[in-house]
Amino acid sequence: MTQPLMQAARLYQAKHPLLIEQVPVPVPAADEVLVKVAACGLCGTDIHLAVDGDIPVSRSPVTLGHEVAGTIAVLGAGVQGLSVGQRVALFPSAVCGQCRFCRAGRESLCEASEVYGMSRDGGLAEYITAPAFGVIPIPGDLGFAEAAIITDGVSTPLHALRSRGMLRAGETVAVVGCGGLGVHAILLARMMGAGLVIGIDTGAEARSRAKALGADLVIDPATDPDPGKVIRAELGRGADLALEFVGRTETVEMTLRCLDTGGRAVLVGVGPGQPKLPPLMRFVGREMSVIGSFGMDKRDISDLMGLVTRGRLDLSHSVTATYPLAGINQALDRLASKQGGVARLVVEPFR
Ligand SMILES: [Zn+2]
Ligand SMILES: [Zn+2]
After folding, report:
1. Distance 283 CA to ligand 2 centre (A)
2. Is 76 within a domain?
3. Quick check: is 118 in a domain?
4. How far, in Å, is the centroid of ligand 2 from the Cα of 156?
5. String of b and e for 48-87 (b: at least 16 CB within 10 Å)?
6. Residue 113: nearest ligand to its CA?
7. Enclosing domain of residue 79
8. For helices 180-191 and 204-212, angle between their N-to-C axes, nearest 10 degrees
């Protein structure tokens, strides 16, 4: 008996192109489903893994990709409440559904999660297996490409703004780093009623896209190394909420300098740096907060799908381009070079 084969984009080693290989179609375990992949978004994490190599690959080779949408092809023997042919998106890591955090609806903190494209085969393939707990049905006629990027590119900034940053209507929000996550933070902050939104990025294209998506003010730290100063000069005060999407020591410290008295900084970007707090007299005396925000919860993804389906949130400008699986290395190069002000690129394995 021969096992059916499929195409998959496999990462062997950072800084080397992915190889498109024929591998066996995986078989779902009892609590898993097999999903036929319609769309898989690319993300900064993929660049760290495959191009820059500053996030180590924990398994080699591994099929890359963690922003997945498609249709259920096979149900594991014990799966209930889902059906073959159903349109679904996947939580970007295989979460257990049983640990104290999963049970509390805080899947971002799952104690046994395996990230697709890192420790478990991901969605840059024709098929992927996933635990049924991480399957999120796609409502209405929401497209696969938009559903795919919602699972991480849009839900990560929502989690940062809503669950961690506690954004309230009327507040001033600063966004440091206006790539795929940052521009969606700007779009969402507008939707959530932010009084004023500031985009901070050294890239001219990123700044103009930030403006197009609703930033009231954009700042280039290459010419204004202390954007906090510019914000105070313009508004007479700092930001209530500042989000950091870069993950470098200097950009985190820049984010903290943007804060008003009582302000909250939410750090989303990760990296090897160890940024310093402001002097204690200022940090404590002005009741500033620094908050970590890691990924998203399932609720963030399903709420966003509802918002798009009901016309409250427009993601029609979010997918910059789509590629076939064979174009994966071009797509990664394009995302890494940030040419053309890329928001989000999506791979469609059956295109
Ligand atoms: Zn990602
Ligand atoms: Zn868990």
Report:
1. 34
2. yes
3. yes
4. 18
5. bbbbeeebebeeebbbbbbbbbbebbbbbeebeeeeeebb
6. 2
7. 5-154+296-347
8. 20
How far is the centre of ligand 1, averaged over its atoms, from the C-alpha of 152 (Å)? 5
Residue 298: nearest ligand to its CA? 2
- 16 and 119: one domain? yes
Burial class (CB in 10 A: 0-12, 13-18, 19+), 344: buried
List, for residues 201-238, the tens digit of each pLDDT value: 999 999 999 999 999 999 999 999 999 999 999 999 99
Rounded Cα gap, residues 241 and 82, in angstroms: 39
The reported pLDDT for the residue numbered 339 is: 65
**Longest CA span, the chain:** 73
Token digits for 155? 């839900």
Residue 159 within a domain:
no
| Weakly modelled stretches of the chain, pLDDT under 70 | 1, 339-342
pLDDT value at residue 54: 84
Q: Are strands 62-63 and 5-11 parallel, antiparallel or unpaired?
A: antiparallel
Say if residue 244 is exposed, middle or buried (CB neighbours under 10 Å; 0-12, 13-18, 19+). Answer: buried
pTM for this predicted structure: 0.96
Distance of CA 342 from the midpoint of ligand 2 (Å) = 33
Q: 322 C-alpha to center of ligand 1: Å?
A: 17
CB 123 within 8 A of CB 40: yes
Which residues have C-beta within 8 Å of that of residue 77, sequence separation ≥ 6? 30
Cα of 253 to ligand 1 centre, how many Å? 23
Q: How far is the CA of 88 from the centre of ligand 2 (A)?
A: 20
pLDDT at residue number 23: 98
DSSP secondary structure, 52-65, as one string: I--S--SSSSEE--
Residues 20 and 115 in one domain: yes
